Amino acid sequence: MKILTCIVCPVGCKIKIDENGNVLGARCDRGLSFVKRELLSPERILTTTIRVDGGIVKVVPVKSTKPIPKERLREIVRKISNISIKAPIRRGDMVYKDEEVSLIATRSVEEAKDV
Ligand code: SF4
Asked: Is the C-beta atom of 30 inside 6 A of ligand 1?
């Protein structure tokens, strides 16, 4: 038996898949779709940080605009670890985009003022 926690909504149903492929414990159809995706090709929203130049803080938290295949997450994080963006940044700004991933800032970063 395999047990998955559905991450589609905050309820977080514990969904059991038995040896015969029966799915138990999902309170709605979205949970069944989650199980199918999770078993065939799991995906996650990528959340990480990107370095900031000239801001009041050194990094800004970002997230992907759509789910990414789980097996690609590590490589994408490695790729974006080399970039930095210039302050000011507004929450919701698209801060990085390539053929594989688009990232938006999840907080604003003001420009540092010279003292
Ligand atoms: S199965 Fe439905 S109710 Fe349960 S966590 Fe998933 S989406 Fe939410």
From this structure: yes
